[in-house]
Structure formats: C-alpha cells, structure tokens
Write a structure and sequence with these properties.
It contains 16 helices and 24 strands. It is an alpha/beta fold. It has three domains: 5-88, UreE, C-terminal domain (Alpha-Beta Plaits, 2-Layer Sandwich); 113-338, TIM Barrel (Alpha-Beta Barrel), CATH 3.20.20.10; 348-465, Beta Barrel (Lyase, Ornithine Decarboxylase, Chain A, domain 1), CATH 2.40.37.20. Helix 2 packs across helix 3 and helix 9 packs parallel to helix 10. 41% of the residues are buried. Bound molecules: pyridoxal-5'-phosphate (PLP). Pyridoxal-5'-phosphate is lined by residues 136, 158, 179, 264, 307-309, 325-328.
C-alpha cells in the first residue's frame, strides 16, 4: 500500500515516545491487544503501521520511537499505557532488557506480525499472477496458524501425510491435497477422509491405480507427480509412456478424477544464486507446460501445480502454471536467507536458548539447544564452516540484533556450541538467553512442537500446540 508520510500522520496524534528499547514491545503489545490502530515512527527506520496494515516491510525497531494513534483512541491508549507502565516493577523492566524471561529450556518463539507480512506477500503474488494458492501446511502444522491463512481467504491446503490431512480436516479444512505418493497402507484413512472432504492424492505408478480400483470407496482427485529435475519421486517429465499408461488405467476407475500435473522443484535448494533458482524454475515450468499442451484436449480442466518457497518468492512470471503450494515462506529461515530468498528480518521463528557456558579463549558459548531442538540441518558459510543456526541478541520478546559473524558451529544431542566474535563475548553472560535462527524452520518446528507467540504482552505466554 503506498501512503505518503504526510498522509500517514495526518489526523494521528503522538501519544508516546519510547525512552528505551524495553518500552517498544510493551506499548505495541498493549495497543495490539486492544485492537488500536497505531503508527510507529522510528528515527532510522521506515514507519510501521500496526493492526490492519500488513503490506509493509518489517525492521527491528531501534532508535527514538514515537507512537501515533487516531484522535478517537488517544485517551484510551494513553490511559492503558500509563497503567501498564505503573504496574511494571524494576525487575520486570530488567528482565525484558536483559532478555531474562522465564525460559529454562529451548523455546520456539513465533512472531505473528512477520508471519502475516510473509503471508500477505504470497497472497498478493498469487493474486497478481492469477494463481490458485494452496499453501503447504507442513511447515507450521498448527490449526491456529491455519486460521491466519483463512483470514486471507485461503480455503484449500496441501499437507504431506494422511495424519496431517486428518488433523486439518478436523479443523474445518475440506479441500486438501496430500502431496506425498499414494501409500496403499493409508487406504482406510483416505476412505474416511474422502467421505466428507475433497481430497487429492499423488499417483506415480499403475499399481496404485489398480489398488484404488479395488479399494477406493468415495470420489477423490489425483495428480500425477512429475519429476522436473529434483529426482525425489515422480515420473520424469518426458516419460509420456508411463503418464499415458496411468491415465488410461485411471479411466477404468469411476471414483478417480484426474486433476492435473504436480511438481516440487526441490533442486532449487541446491542453487547458488537467484539466477540459478530462476533458471531451474523456468525450466521446470517449461517441462510442465509441455505436458499441459499434450493432454489438455483430453482433460480440458487439468491444472499445473508447483511448489517451493524459493521460486514462488522470487519469480514474477508463472506462464501456464495454475496453482502454487509454497509452505516455508510463512516462517522462512536461514536456508532461505542464504539463497537470497528472504531477509533476516523476515524470519518469523527463532529458538530462545539458555547460555550455560562460556569459553573466552575459544570464542565459544555453549547453549542448551542441540540437535533434538534445532535439527542437524546445516548450511556452509563462506569459510566452509558448518552453520547449524545464526545467532541474535534479543529484547526478551524477540531477536533484535544479529550477532554479526556468530553461528552455531556444532551440535550434540542437547548442546549447541556457538562461535561468538570477540566484540560480542563481553555482552553475553552465562544465564542469558541467545536466539538461534533455524537453518530449516520446518524441521525445527516439527521437533519443538510448541510455539511461544511473541507478539502479545511479553509477560503472557501464549502457546499454540502443533499436531501432537
Ligand atoms: C510436494 C511439495 N509441495 C510443496 C512443498 C513446499 O515447498 P517449500 O518447503 O519450499 O515451501 C514441499 C516441500 O517439501 C513439497 O514436498
């Protein structure tokens, strides 16, 4: 949304000028909680609207910060802020300042505002390119986060297992693609799910069709999964023989409806530049278009469905493609950052980890946060060190300052050993909390299974449970 600075401030009144970093999250949380629309003006950064204005970029707020609200909210908001400030003890303030909230174990923090901004971006991308949006819910696996998507008009989803489909069907999602090759041993659950819901499955061989012919009880849709170069599963895009054989067999199964071709260009994750991602993705689209052209006369309603966050984030041309299924974009992570797909400020999840030891000679800090929390996924930095997570300092609610040059360098089951540049070592004490930005957010969330929502009042723990 483009609003000039002059327009933004017209009719708004300054109600609070933050005197320290601590005030900002507190004032924001109280205004958010009361659904008061506000504008924050930071000295060095772009302005941020509060509620209802999600299309703008996000930056951790630093410098002198002013809060503006509408005339009609001035009295209410100043009263709320003054009551809240009076009720804070020095200890509370110190705790926020030093990041010493009561996390005694690795805790997954989630910034809702960033998620909504990431979501808004992808919804707009789909809209501008006339694409149907079927986001992958395996990244967050949370019914509550699913509702944020529903708020943007999303009504169909992708999942990676029958269990996940069942979970989301129980939470009123009734149009679900299970984007994993059909598993005969799930037949019973698929028959239950498809009784009341629109379910799509992936087919990659004739055996599945023969099995479905005997065992399927209700109408379902199927996509043929296509391998455009990732080489995980799927039929090679040029293998018309196998594709035709499947389609021919499927014609004998009245309950099976062919929906189209689906691919996931996971090989984008091996790319070294935006250009390479673009090249891989456009090649993948081209291979998919060949299939569309070949089969559209026989199946006039067939669609092409593609996934992956890198291509959906970076590309602005989706010729011939009908549907996108990105998942990771809702949180992003260090892997996406390394690929230049997102900025660090867009990463919506971090793991808050207690510092348990410091080794000044080795420039190391040990945290409670190991492979069972972060996963063993790593990227390599320019010195070819393995990086299991980037590091940040925080304000007790979220990460605010990236530790330049710091990273998790090794992991054992519960320990994380962090490399910390000299200039930061004196700022971190045993007992503090460090924020780890995960390499692969889907894996980290799946391990921790519990979110601590940080956009609320810092003292209120708002937990959303995942699938388990
Ligand atoms: C079939 C399929 N579709 C979509 C996605 C979402 O891709 P991303 O994780 O890049 O958002 C995945 C992720 O693995 C997938 O396997």
């Amino acid at each position: 949304m483009s609003v000039s600075n002059k327009d933004k401030f017209e009719g708004l009144q300054l109600i609070y000028e933050a005197t320290s970093q601590v005030d900002i999250p507190l004032v924001k949380s109280i205004l958010d909680e009361e659904d008061i629309v506000y504008l924050i003006k930071g000295e060095h950064l772009q302005n941020l609207f509060g509620i209802g204005n999600l299309g703008m970029g996000f930056n951790p707020i630093v410098g002198k910060t002013k809060f503006y609200v509408r005339q009609s909210d001035v009295i209410r908001s100043t009263e709320l802020i003054s009551v809240m400030m009076d009720s804070l003890t020095n200890k509370d303030v110190e705790m926020v300042k030093e990041g010493k909230l009561n996390f005694s174990k690795p805790t997954l923090l989630l910034n809702k505002q960033k998620c909504l901004q990431n979501l808004n971006f992808m919804v707009e991308k789909a809209y501008k390119n006339s694409l149907s949006f079927r986001p992958h819910f395996k990244t967050h696996q949370s019914a509550e986060i699913g509702e944020w998507f529903r708020g943007f008009g999303v009504n169909k989803i992708t999942v990676s297992s029958v269990d996940m489909a069942t979970y989301f069907a129980l939470h009123d999602w009734d149009d679900i693609t299970i984007a994993f090759p059909f598993n005969q041993r799930n037949m019973k659950e698929i028959n239950v799910l498809s009784e009341k819901n629109s379910i799509n499955i992936l087919i990659i061989n004739e055996e599945s069709i023969l099995f479905l012919k005997e065992n399927l009880r209700h109408q379902i849709g199927f996509f043929i999964e296509i391998d455009t170069g990732y080489h995980r599963t799927g039929i090679d895009a040029s293998n018309f023989t196998d594709i035709e054989a499947i389609l021919l067999k499927a014609r004998e199964v009245e309950l099976l409806e062919f929906k189209g071709f689906l691919t996931h260009s996971g090989h984008n994750y091996n790319a070294n530049s935006i250009d390479e991602i673009t090249e891989i993705s456009l090649d993948s689209h081209k291979k998919m278009r060949v299939l569309k052209d070949k089969f559209i006369d026989l199946y006039p309603n067939l669609i092409l469905s593609i996934g992956d966050t890198p291509s959906c984030t970076l590309l602005n041309s989706f010729e011939g493609i009908d549907e996108i299924r990105p998942g990771n974009f809702i949180f992003y992570d260090v892997m996406q950052y390394k690929l230049n797909v997102c900025k660090l400020e867009q990463i919506a999840v971090s793991v808050c980890c207690p510092v348990v030891a410091k080794n000044i000679e080795r420039n190391e800090i040990a945290i409670y946060g190991g492979a069972i929390h972060l996963s063993k996924e790593f990227i390599e930095n320019s010195f070819l060190d393995r990086v299991y997570g980037l590091l940040a300092l925080g304000d007790g609610r979220d990460f605010t300052e990236i530790i330049d040059g710091g990273f998790v360098k090794s992991l054992s089951q519960e320990h994380g050993i962090c490399h910390i540049p000299q200039e930061y070592l004196s700022r971190i004490k045993v007992g503090d909390l460090l924020f780890v930005l995960p390499v692969h957010s889907c894996l980290t969330c799946n391990l921790l299974k519990e979110y601590h929502l940080i956009s609320d009042d810092y003292s209120k723990k708002n937990i959303i449970f995942q699938n388990k």
